[in-house]
Amino acid sequence: MPEASKPAAGKEVVSILPSIAFSDLKNHKFDEIIDVRTPLEFAEDHVQGAINLPVLSNEERAQVGTLYASDKLKGRKIGAALIARNISDHIMNHFQDKELDYKPLIYCWRGGQRSRSMATILKEIGFQPSLLQAGYKQYRKTICNYLCTEENEKDGETNLERIKLVRISGATGSGKTLLLKALEERGEQILDLEYLAKHKGSILGDYPDAGQPSQKFFETELYNQLEALKTDKVVWVENEGSKIGNLNVSRRLFERMSSSPRVHITVDMDDRVDYILKDYEYLISNPDLKLPDLLKRIEKYAGKKTCDAWLKLLGEKNYRELVVGLIKYYDSSYKVPKGESLATLAMPSGLLLDFPKLTSSQYVDNFISIGDEYLKNVQEGGNKEDCLTKNSDDFKELSENVASVEIR
Which of 122, 309, 345, 386 has the fewest Cβ atoms nearer than 10 Å? Predict the structure, then answer.
């Protein structure tokens, strides 16, 4: 019986590992997505659903990088030793109970040595690993192209072009975010940018228990939200500026929002004040959040005299008048959104302060009806922009009648 063939002398034996493009991931099923980059790299941004099993710690990567710059061979040796030791720890802990049919997708910065090292060892064990083609670098490029590249520069239409956005506009304290949540409760699609950005949009809008994500992670979350939206229903979104806190709204989305139809809401002053007092109660009750310092941020816009008056009201614990003053300031600087509104809907008094009643109200019904009518016009007309004024008389009639709507 002939001997088994042996590799030719001088030939390198390479373990073949499947490589999957990010754009093709939806056609594959993996048990886990593993990011082997450092914890710092992972925290800044990562593929949705990925877990972090770093093969180098933050400090080890810096150490190896510094050494590699002065002595490449020594850097590679130390790097290999550290990676092997860390992979060993992961095998003894994370992979110990995995069966042979276990299929992970593994990636690092650009699909290089870190991800290949782990995948090679897992394959030798008998698992079925695959690599993310070109790693996180290519993934990030895909996200940037999707959110920022001009439509005619991209290969084919994306979901961002296909969805039907309808903005909700209104002055500060009108409860636009609350209205989005009510619409979601009723089965409508929403895109809550302030939730993704972990910020309420104003200078006082920092979340009390969470900082804003990195720009990259915000865009990853945004990409995944947009891709999950259906095209046979409208998508309600709050009218936003190009920045939410420290984060930029991606160019393509901002352009789509700016050219999309909108519904404008108005709310009684007393309800707006009560809503803001409730929504921002943590700023009053928690001195660690330093409300006086936050108010001083507005001084360069509102003027020292106005800011001093606010601080005096704060010191006197006259919170209601403070909120009235802030609302008047923001109203005076409110910019009317681009484009004529499909309708202006006045919210019945007291509705903003009772979320269950808001959710089941005729007021929310009117939004749903406007969305359905707009969607019908788009489907009949075939062009979203051409439908902004189609059947405008119907929208105006609804706007005129809504003032008499009572809470259910």
Answer: 386
220 vs 206: CA distance, rounded Å: 21
Instruction: Pick from 21-25, 177-181, 254-258 the range whose average pLDDT is largest.
Output: 177-181
Q: How far apart are CA 98 and CA 44, in angstroms?
A: 28
**Which pLDDT value is given to residue 205?**
87
What band does 123 get if pLDDT is binned at 50, 70 and 90? very high
Token pair for 242: 């190009």
Supply the pLDDT for residue 286: 86
What interhelical angle do 319-332 and 304-315 show, nearest 10?
160
Q: How far apart are CA 349 and CA 341, in angstroms?
A: 22
pTM of model > 0.70: yes
Nearest partner of 47 among 221, 229, 227, judged by Cα: 221
Point out which residues pair with 238 in neighbouring strands.
168
Per-residue pLDDT band for 210 (boundaries 50, 70, 90) equals confident
Q: How far is CA 392 from CA 29, 192, 261, 366, in A?
A: 47, 27, 11, 15
Residue 365's pLDDT band (cuts 50, 70, 90): very high
Query: Cα(6)–Cα(246) distance, rounded to whole angstroms?
Result: 60
Of the residues 108, 144, 307, 387, only one is catalytic, namely 108
108 is catalytic: yes
For 198, half-sphere exposure in the C-beta direction (CA atoms, 13 angstrom radius) is 13
Single out the residue of 163, 167, 151 nearest to residue 257, CA to CA: 167
Other C-beta atoms lying within 10 Å of the C-beta of residue 315: 10
| Mean confidence (pLDDT) of the chain | 89
